Amino acid sequence: MKILIVDDNETFLSQIKKYLTLKNFDVDVAYRGKDALRMLVKGYDAVLLDLKIPDISGIEIMKEARRKGIKTNFIVITGYGEVESAVEAMKLGAVDYIQKPFDTGRLLEILNKIKSRKKYHPFVDFLRNYIGSDTLLISENPEKIRNEYGLDVEKNLRLSDKSIEEILSHVEKLVKKNGFIIHTGIKLLNEKGILKNYLMKLQKLADEKNIKIVFICESVEEKRLLDAIYKGEVKNVEKMIEIFKSPVRRKILHFIMMHGSLKYSEIMKLLDVKYSSKIAFHLKKLHEMNLVEKVNRKYKLTPEGEYMTKIFDALVMEKDKISYFVL
After folding, report:
1. Rounded CA separation 113/125 (Å)
2. CATH superfamily to which 2-116 belongs
3. Residue 170 and which of 19, 164, 198, 233 are 20 to 30 A apart at CA?
4. The CATH number of domain 241-314, selected from 3.40.1190.20, 3.50.50.60, 1.10.1660.10, 1.10.10.10
5. What digits encode the pLDDT tens for the residues 215-243?
């Protein structure tokens, strides 16, 4: 579990970091608000945030994080008599607050509560259905990724200290034709200065062996690196998740795909639902997304709807079998 602690008290930061590290948390620290905003894009499960940071207040940091679409669990630190600030922070989405001086046991309790309710990205759940004997996990730390996201992958390849040629050689040996690769470690490859060259060569190998590849971006920063390389040519999974996150919508699209076109009453029968308002709501959403259209009193998929449904079924993205998403 990744945690960022933001406080201008160096002694406090050192003590809390040491304590949480001993409790097996992955801890980063920031002394200034500007540093915290820069680091937040890395993606943290929780942020322990002092509301009184000299350069940027904790409240402003939370507002800026919300404006940028950064999602995390803020735990705010307040001083005695600062209840109003804590209430304002809670309105902005803080999960809890804690007053200085505080009991570390109380902090641990809050963090464990966050950890226990942590949900996987919906696409991670979807990936599990595609993991088979010929799936390869490529990562800087395969054991950590397997445990953290519940991926039951037998074949693993560790990225550390390997050249492009060594990685590709292992991929060629470990993954058969029509195989599947789950890949993390974008930041590490970029730091080595080999990311773009590596991706181009991996792409060629994927084409030759018809291998499907999904990159898991563990931060917004990693997604931006891929965006810069692919320049929008690869199908970003986020739109697909928005479309398919509803089980009802998934079923509607699949049934229409199977039957070609369906009447409203036929959709209700196939879904075995009693209340038509529920179906009407989802059909309206699918129509607004330009995935479904009504022709002669029957619903059919638009070209975009048929395309997206096939993609989701096959786990093949828009360009060259590569996709990526942010956790």
Report:
1. 21
2. Response regulator (3.40.50.2300)
3. 233
4. 1.10.10.10
5. 888 777 888 888 788 765 555 555 666 66
